[in-house]
Amino acid sequence: MDQYHEPVAELSPLDRDFVRALTSLKEEIEAINWYHQRVVAASDPQIKAIMAHNRDEEMEHAIMGLEWLRRAMPGWDAVMRTYLFTTGDITALEDATAGEGATADAPKTSAGSGSLGIGSLKRNR
């Protein structure tokens, strides 16, 4: 399968499920894009409503996949807790969690900070 970048035999069954979930998520997001374009381009109200319904169903599917990833794949929960259901400048949320530091034993992060304790990849200018 072309979605694998490493030998499949080296991936655990759970890792292969991650690939399946991530591939499905990409497909759902692509379908949302296609249906949305059809909604805004359609002139007939009935087909516009049908395409909007289909788009919204794909959103539901995408979110179900994200929720499974949040529960099953390390890192998703913390990042989602940092960025989802917030207000204000989204990019400022990362800056607000960047100064938390770490102990010698483990990264010092609050629950849901989104930090993996590896520091920022952004250059200081």
From TrEMBL:
GO MF annotations, alphabetized: ferroxidase activity; metal ion binding
Subcellular location: Encapsulin nanocompartment
Domain of life where this protein originates: Bacteria
Keyword vocabulary terms for this entry: Encapsulin nanocompartment, Iron, Iron storage, Metal-binding
One BP annotation, GO: intracellular iron ion homeostasis
Pfam families: EncFtn-like
Any one annotated GO CC term: encapsulin nanocompartment
Region (Disordered): 97-125
Protein's name in the database: Ferritin
